[in-house]
Design brief:
Neuraminidase; mainly beta; globular; four-stranded antiparallel beta sheet
């Protein structure tokens, strides 16, 4: 027993958890789920639930998966664990929806959807999916071909305008146009399809025509290339995100791959998945889901001394959270089960 405790404590330097990755195919009309080793399995089969030209993947506040279905002008809801079809969240053409390219939830809990085909952003009830209003009217601020919407750290709404090669800013409450946050004069932008605000103070942008990822320093106003054009074979990048492993995962639309890059300097690391072999044609969006980790007691995504000693407290107090074997009895078997899970890390 002393040896097992010592071995577990030796791992307290912090073990990063892994992610599952959902990838949707623009041409194949499906979603495949990849484990941390890049092994894929069908999550939503081709045209499952009516899925046609999927474009974005979003987790709802209710813990379900919402997918914008461009080909039939709707948003479809699936079980986040199994991929089973639940319902049509936004019905076809509701509120004038035309080619929905992205969806996000605002501070008010409602769903905001970019309507690419008529250059507006529409707002829907965050629970029922019922149409509320046109949050950003057609073409406001020069909006043309809206690809993605996100709410920024300041609460305002930001929209990638593909034709303008710019990220536009709107008041997060009224939808009034504020101004252009960044455009091709500030940083390399060429048909921006995806963007997100990083925890490091940068705005990251995937540029489909430029075959690169650029970033913009929100404090200094300086822009730079982060992933060089074509690095690692990158062609027409779209969906991208940082994983809990610190790497940047990028959907390479033009090569049927998900590529990984160093999260600090943007250098190419490896091919995470050759999606074409799993039936994903033209991967357009990805969503990283942190795996539940049974030994992550404090739920912060890493295994460290806090988790180890946190479990000791649960065990000593007879808390139900210490019942690792699930038999209703807290004993040595639970303690050893925790040690084994802790030593194994998360995958």
């Amino acid at each position: 027993m002393c040896f097992r405790i010592a071995a577990a404590i030796a791992l307290c330097a912090s073990i990063a958890t892994a992610d599952d990755v959902l990838v949707c195919g623009w041409i194949s009309n499906n979603i495949v789920k990849y484990d941390s080793d890049g092994v894929g399995e069908t999550f939503v089969p081709p045209q499952g639930g009516g899925l046609t030209r999927p474009h974005s993947l979003t987790v709802s506040p209710q813990g379900t998966l919402l997918v914008t279905s461009v080909g039939n002008n709707r948003v479809i809801e699936y079980d986040l664990e199994t991929g089973a079809f639940i319902d049509t969240f936004v019905t076809s053409g509701s509120g004038g929806l035309n080619s929905p390219t992205s969806l996000t939830f605002g501070p008010d809990g409602n769903a905001y959807v970019t309507s690419f085909g008529n250059d507006r952003v529409l707002r829907y009830d965050g629970v029922s999916g019922a149409f509320i209003d046109a949050f950003i009217p057609a073409g406001l601020g020069g909006l043309d071909n809206p690809e993605m919407i996100k709410f920024g750290p300041n609460g305002n709404a930001y929209v990638a305008s593909g034709s303008l090669n710019a990220i536009l800013e709107y008041d997060g409450t009224t939808g009034a146009f504020v101004g252009t946050l960044v455009d091709s004069g500030d940083v390399a932008i060429s048909d921006p399809h995806g963007f997100f605000f990083g925890d490091d103070g940068f705005l990251y942008i995937s540029n489909m025509d430029g075959n690169n990822v650029s970033r913009y320093n929100l404090t200094t106003g300086e822009g730079e290339l982060f992933v060089d054009p074509g690095a690692g074979g990158l062609v027409s990048p779209h969906g991208f995100a940082f994983g809990s492993d610190g790497l940047l995962y990028v959907a390479s639309f033009g090569t049927n791959q998900v590529l990984r890059y160093d999260g600090k300097n943007g250098d190419f690391v490896d091919v995470f998945a050759n999606t074409g072999g799993d039936g994903v044609s033209s991967p357009i969006e990805l969503l990283l889901l942190e795996d539940a980790c049974i030994a992550d007691i404090d739920g912060n995504g890493t295994l460290d001394a806090n988790d180890f000693f946190g479990y000791l407290d649960l065990f000593a107090g007879g808390d139900d959270g210490a019942d690792f074997t699930g038999n209703g009895v807290i004993d040595a078997d639970d303690f050893f089960a925790f040690l084994d899970a802790f030593a194994a890390g998360c995958s």
